[in-house]
Design a protein that fits this description.
Shape: elongated
Radius of gyration: 20 Å
Strand content: 15-25%
Number of strands: 12
Organism: Enterococcus mundtii
Strand order of the largest sheet: 7-6-8-9-10-12
Protein name: LacI family transcriptional regulator
């Protein structure tokens, strides 16, 4: 019988790709599913590497590439730990599915800044003024939150945490609890823009529990273009995770050394 490990070692390949991701959140489902499918179609397996935004954990996973325990590494959302990636890229192939500051590093990512600007511009042009948004991490921790905050302030003025935007919100339960909380405020926002369609569903449910009806008393906008958004008829942003996941795998298995590719998100108005 042929020893599979021996064959892999003789070729110097593991036929395994690593994927770092913060946690098992639904917002990564489509991206991960796309990576899994594309990798399997190419004869590769995938090692999922949860980080929980811990720098030490991220650094440990990076050594898997350096030690040739994986053939390539896909990075999703992470801490600002980029100083380790520059030297590491010479020891194996890495690609990020988020925009990075260093253009020498490979990345295939959604142009989130463009989506945020388009969204807030459209709301402003429609005469909507009472807009709030939610995020998982603060602007000091997340470039995504920082970009969202900058776009918001371009059209609606200075944003104050706890008044115009709220952090630490990610799941359906978070959205539900957040909705119950904001119904105690003096006025209900016209638009609540949340970071995930499952969170948006939680907001709608919580607001309904408090006696407020979606598209009558307020409007929710989500992210992800998941079935929630179609079933509950709320607007959402599609960041093309399926396309990005497949492209990330194809890059790792290609002969190319570098790629910087931005995908345009699509705002789906409902």
């Amino acid at each position: 019988m042929v020893n599979g490990n021996a064959v892999k070692l003789s070729k110097g390949e593991t036929y395994t790709l690593g994927v770092t991701l913060p946690n098992n959140s639904s917002c990564y489902n489509q991206l991960v599913d796309s990576i899994l499918y594309q990798a399997k179609s190419k004869g590769y397996q995938v090692l999922l590497l949860p980080t929980y935004y811990e720098k030490e954990t991220e650094s440990h996973y990076y050594t898997l590439l350096e030690q040739k325990m994986i053939d390539g590494l896909i990075l999703t959302s992470r801490t600002k730990n980029d100083e380790l990636l520059e030297p590491l890229r010479f020891k194996g192939k890495i690609v990020s599915t988020e925009k990075m500051d260093n253009d020498d590093l490979a990345m295939i990512y959604p142009d989130r800044k463009k989506a945020y600007d388009q969204l807030f511009l459209t709301l402003h042009a429609r005469g909507i003024s009472r807009v709030i948004f939610t995020t998982k991490r603060s602007a000091s921790q997340s470039q995504t939150t920082k970009n969202k905050l900058t776009a918001y302030e371009t059209y609606f003025g200075k944003a104050i945490e706890g008044k115009n935007y709220f952090t630490g919100i990610e799941t359906y339960a978070d959205g539900y609890a957040f909705a119950i909380e904001i119904t105690t405020h003096a006025s209900i926002p016209e638009v609540i823009y949340v970071n995930g369609d499952d969170t948006a569903a939680g907001v709608i449910s919580g607001m309904k529990q408090a006696g407020f009806i979606h598209k009558k008393d307020f409007t929710v906008i989500g992210e992800g273009n998941l079935p929630y958004s179609e079933i509950l008829a709320f607007s959402t942003i599609d960041f093309s995770p399926k396309k990005i996941g497949a492209s990330a795998v194809d890059f790792l298995l290609s002969q190319s050394d570098r790629i910087v590719q931005a995908e345009d998100p699509v705002i789906i108005w409902r």
